[in-house]
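Researcher: Next sequence.
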Amino acid sequence: MLICRLGAWQDILSPNCFPEPDNRNRMPIQIGQKKAADFSDPLGMLSDCHRRIERFLAALLTLAREGKAGELDEGQKASLRNALEYFRTSGPRHTADEEESLFPRMQESKAGAAALRSIELLEADHEAADRAHREIDVLGARWLQAGRLNEADAARMAEGRYCLNRQ
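Model: Next structure:
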């Protein structure tokens, strides 16, 4: 179990994992979801952020598979724009929160080799996610600008390579 000082988490763990409270960043919601964690539960905050990542990934995958890279209606365009914006802004902030705050604490913990192996796996996930998100950002922007994707780009979007098994 990782134990940390709350003050240190409040200084390091940014609330930027959460989108701005305006209409640009509408979150996919889940009916009946539990109340989000706050700074009194920093690991809960990271976990909540992982759930948001999963919901945005699911939204992207649904759009890609159901939209078949054809023309999107206004609601689908908004969903795509929101997901792309989330991964451009909040995704990197979440990664920084983990790498700059959580990982050092894990390295200092008594978990030893198991913690180090977990960090290695998470760092590899972060690198893979960053590459995938850059690719999806290009494809998504192309889809929004051109109104459709070619067959190869559509297949890349729909295959879901950007959805990691571990989040």
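Model: Residues 1-25 have pLDDT under 50 and may be disordered. The longest helix spans residues 74-108.
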